[in-house]
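Narrative of accomplishments. A recurring question from our advisory board has been how the design workflow behaves on a single, concrete structure rather than in aggregate. To address it, we present the structure tokens for one chain from the evaluation set, followed by the sequence designed for it. No filtering or post-editing was applied between the two.
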């Protein structure tokens, strides 16, 4: 799961598909009309079988393989690396053998490689500060830039609008801006328009520097970096009393690479009624990504394989077409799923009845989150497209019948449902938490430790096989299996009244 909505942490798509998968093309309808009652019975029967056959125990072998791949490839499976390429080949081979129509969808990405990131106070109190270069920042001259700082106004939207800056104050200076509200691109653009020659963004919480970034190299206008909340507030306080001069040195290389999505679909099923499911297969560079998102990828793969077993045993194809996707470059800003959706024409978009997303489903200090399709929590974004409320209800009903506690989570745009929602495709899925902090109420509800992150190893080297909750992994695989079984034959619940 990527760090922040709309933030492009590693790369950006820069080209149309180099090899457009055949699965994007509409196939003739593959199922004859079936009586609704019969469809419902078929759906319930298949769902029960898939839930019975799919488990965390059976999917664990995929997690072991992804860990092995990371260990053999520098400790990660990031997009554009040999680790991700091997992960994609593993998924492709199993799906092909199982009888799916499988293809790769290749696309280009940019990757930022930082060689130097230095920030120091030159005067009045010389010291070195902990700093993180923004992704796709322009580099400074080799000797760096030395300039006084000017602090942007801190309000509900700090540094986001032109009137947060005074051009005569910021010209030739390094802008100091607090994180929050708008994107890093918008903050940087406003600072550059005010005449700033660099920007330093300080955090709004925690003890680590802001790790910001832009979507692609062309969005970087002035050298940009992040510092901690404490350092930012100290600089702002000092600047209010007199001139504070900084030295900022950034050297960053921008590299073009190729990566790929893996897309598989059933040979049968009505191509005008596609059930799409996805998980991102890439990790961050800092670790193997076994929870984020080996867990979602392994769970989705195992259910897809069990569905193939059922099709083979029964000789019957699903009523609706099932399309499974393993996205690349999610950690760079949902690039794989965004690319996929951008390549669909209007007819192909309308053929997708719904999209289910599974990203981080085995967090070691987990809570059981279900995407809030109807916005009943009244938090953050509004409801998803029509049908999203019904998807949430289907998942919640299944968890209720299993006696599993759960709660809603907002469509923040942090995972691959985002591009589907943007074009009006209903979406849903589950999530067990990332860097957010578990509350006392959640600890009482789910177990685990209050005051600690749902995944303390999020985006780190510790995201390994040893740091998973396999019980919650099993629960979420059951959710996937149940949804696949129901929607394979019966989409009628998507038309139920939202309040039913």
């Amino acid at each position: 799961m990527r760090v922040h909505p709309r933030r492009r942490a590693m790369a950006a798509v820069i080209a149309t598909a180099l090899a457009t998968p055949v699965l994007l093309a509409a196939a003739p309808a593959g199922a004859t009309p079936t009586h609704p009652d019969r469809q419902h019975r078929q759906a319930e029967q298949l769902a029960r079988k898939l839930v019975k056959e799919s488990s965390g125990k059976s999917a664990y072998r995929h997690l072991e393989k992804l860990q092995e791949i990371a260990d053999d490839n520098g400790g990660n499976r990031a997009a554009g690396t040999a680790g991700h390429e091997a992960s994609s080949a593993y998924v492709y081979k199993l799906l092909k053998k199982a009888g799916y129509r499988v293809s790769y969808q290749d696309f280009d990405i940019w990757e930022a490689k930082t060689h130097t990131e230095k920030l120091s106070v030159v005067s009045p109190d010389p010291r070195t500060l902990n700093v993180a270069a923004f992704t796709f920042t322009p580099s400074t001259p080799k000797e760096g830039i030395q300039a006084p700082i000017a602090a942007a106004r801190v309000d509900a939207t700090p540094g986001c609008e032109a009137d947060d800056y005074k051009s005569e104050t910021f010209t030739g200076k390094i802008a100091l801006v607090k994180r929050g509200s708008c994107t890093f691109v918008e903050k940087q653009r406003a600072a550059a328009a005010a005449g700033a020659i660099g920007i330093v963004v300080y955090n709004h919480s925690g003890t680590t520097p802001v790790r910001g970034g832009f979507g692609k190299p062309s969005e970087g206008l002035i050298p940009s970096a992040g510092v901690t909340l404490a350092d930012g507030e100290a600089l702002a306080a000092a600047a209010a009393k007199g001139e504070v001069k900084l030295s900022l040195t950034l050297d960053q290389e921008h590299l073009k690479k190729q990566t790929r999505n893996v897309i598989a679909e059933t040979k049968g099923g009505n191509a005008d009624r596609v059930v799409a499911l996805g998980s991102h297969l890439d990790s961050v560079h800092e670790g193997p990504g076994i929870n984020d998102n080996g867990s979602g990828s392994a769970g989705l793969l195992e259910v897809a394989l069990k569905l193939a077993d059922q099709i083979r045993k029964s000789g019957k194809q699903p009523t609706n077409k099932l399309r499974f996707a393993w996205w690349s470059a999610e950690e760079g800003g949902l690039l794989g799923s965004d690319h996929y959706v951008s390549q669909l024409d209007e007819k192909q978009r309308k053929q997708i009845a719904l999209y289910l997303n599974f990203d981080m489903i085995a967090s070691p200090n987990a809570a059981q989150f279900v995407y809030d399709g109807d916005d009943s929590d009244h938090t953050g974004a509004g409801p998803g497209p029509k049908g999203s409320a019904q998807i949430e209800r289907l998942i919640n009903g299944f968890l209720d019948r299993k006696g599993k506690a759960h709660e809603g989570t907002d469509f923040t745009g942090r995972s691959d449902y985002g591009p589907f929602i943007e074009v009006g495709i209903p979406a849903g899925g589950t999530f067990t938490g990332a860097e957010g902090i578990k509350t006392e109420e959640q600890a009482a509800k789910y177990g685990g430790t209050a005051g600690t992150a749902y995944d303390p190893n999020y985006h780190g080297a510790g995201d390994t096989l040893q740091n998973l909750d396999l019980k919650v992994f099993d629960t979420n695989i059951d959710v996937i299996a149940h949804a696949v079984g129901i929607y394979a034959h019966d989409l009628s619940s998507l038309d139920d009244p939202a309040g039913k």
